[in-house]
Amino acid sequence: MTKRGRPPETDARQIARVALGLFARHGFDRVTMDDIAEAASVSRRTLFRLFPAKSDLVWDGLDDVRDFVRRRAAELGPAGLRAGGVLREFAEPFLRALEDPEAAALARQRLRLLAAAPALLAHPTLREIEAVIVTTLAPSEPGQAPPPLVVRTLIAGTFAALMWWAEHGDGMSALEATRAALRALADDRDPCA
Question: Is the distance from CB of 159 to CB of 121 less than 8 angstroms?
């Protein structure tokens, strides 16, 4: 006899972890949504309800980041932040969370996947986050980089630093790696400048 009634709760975070494991073993492009549904023991319909696109499995939790950024930006208003303020106000809370070994291991897995499939960095929620952060920057003076360019550069530099940390950063926290990379970019004594 088949059980009737409400199906058991599905753990979306666990499904995303299963997908990350599959992506790590087989590559993002080679894994199908059917493969993920089977490995996670959920129906294809449930999988698509929770994760409408395969890339959403990689970015599980990004909506929480977006919501935090929106709240923080609303608190700050047009604060006139500079690059360091953006790092302090928006990135540091998440980078500090990576001091937890379990969170760091999951982040490293995601970052390695992003390094192998950089098209994943084009996720629309990342663009939403970028647009919200832009509203907190100081307006640019003539001859200076416009705020959208500053924010996109900070995000790109942060991701690059984190991808390096995921591969080589043992003995260094994600926050330390990010600060070191952004300081190096800001060093105007660079002979290439």
Answer: yes
Would you say 27 and 69 are in contact if contact means Cβ atoms under 8 Å apart?
no
Please list, in sequence order, all residues whose beta carbon lies within 8 angstroms of the beta carbon of residue 121, skipping any fewer than 6 positions away: 114, 159
Residues of the chain with pLDDT under 70: 1-8, 188-193
Collect all residues with Cβ–Cβ distance below 8 Å to 95 and sequence separation of at least 6: 173, 174, 175, 178
Residue appearing with tokens 């599959």: 22
First to last CA, the chain: 74
Query: What pTM was estimated for this model as a whole?
Result: 0.83
Closest-CA residue to 58 (of 23, 95, 97, 96): 23
| Domains of the chain in sequence order | 12-57 (1.10.10.60), 61-186 (1.10.357)
CA distances to 16, 136, 140, 173 from 59, rounded to whole Å, are: 9, 24, 31, 21
Q: What are the angstrom distances between the C-alpha of 24 and each of 34, 40, 55, 99, 113?
A: 17, 15, 14, 22, 7
Q: Which pLDDT score is estimated for 26?
A: 95
* 25-42: burial string, b at 16+ Cβ within 10 Å, e else: eeebeebeeeebbeebeb
Helical residues (DSSP H) of the chain, grouped into ranges: 12-26, 33-40, 44-50, 54-58, 62-76, 83-86, 92-97, 101-116, 124-134, 147-168, 174-186
